[in-house]
Amino acid sequence: MFCPQCGQQQVHGTVRFCSRCGFPLDGVIQLLGSGGMLPVYRAPDEPVPMSPRRRGVKQGGILLLSGAVIVPILGVLASLSNAAFPQILAALAAIICFVGGPLRMLYAGLFEEGAPRRLPIYGPPPLAAPQQFGPPRQNTALPPAPAVRSPSAWRKPNTAELANPPSVTENTTRLLDKEDRTER
Containing domain of residue 64, as a range? Predict the structure, then answer.
């Protein structure tokens, strides 16, 4: 990966800042990771949409807690009247609230889709395009590593240099010398 500010090639793809100019490379890494699509940032005060999983767990919890209020009220009403309808209604409400609520939470937790991965919030999006590709800024970043090694630097030995192969011309010259000696 190359720095878009100064063109310095980065050693690793996980570097957060350019080693030459100090340009932050987090956005570049996200841009490359998303296949060239610009990440969409939301404002910090913008409400977060609720995922289906969280909505289902919330519905199940409300159903369970509402059963703690509705079932006792229906039970008191059923005990005050002699009709069978309020008793059946209280029993039906108890089954729906105390069994249906946890089942709804279980279903939401196991089978419904969770929230999408969030992008980090760096603040509100800028109103104007930042000067990313302008002239390089003078930063207090470390200077880049030298491109050319000093001659005193140790280098890995080339094992082919240990024994030089004979050249073709040496063998030809020897053969010519032998022919000259035999002709005389």
Answer: 52-111
Q: Which two tokens stand for residue 180?
A: 């000259």
Kindly report the number of other CB atoms within 10 A of residue 149's CB atom.
10
**8 A C-beta contact, residue 17 and residue 24:** yes
What are the tens digits of pLDDT across the range 93-109? 999 999 999 999 999 99
The count of other CB atoms within 10 Å of the CB of residue 123 is 8
Q: What 3 state SS string does the chain have? A: CECCCCCCECCCCCCCECCCCCCECHHHHHHHHCCCCCCCCCCCCCCCCCCHHHHHHHHHHHHHHHHHHHHHHHHHHHHHCCCHHHHHHHHHHHHHHHHHHHHHHHHHHHHCCCCCCCCCCCCCCCCCCCCCCCCCCCCCCCCCCCCCCCCCCCCCCCHHHCCCCCCHHHHHHHHHHHHHHHHC
- Is residue 28 situated within a structural domain? yes
pTM beyond 0.70: the answer is no
User: Rounded to whole angstroms, how far apart are CA atoms 106 and 112?
Assistant: 10
Note the pLDDT tens digit of each residue in 57-93.
999 999 999 999 999 999 999 999 888 888 999 999 9
129 falls within a domain: no
Locate 182 and state its tokens. Answer: 């035999």
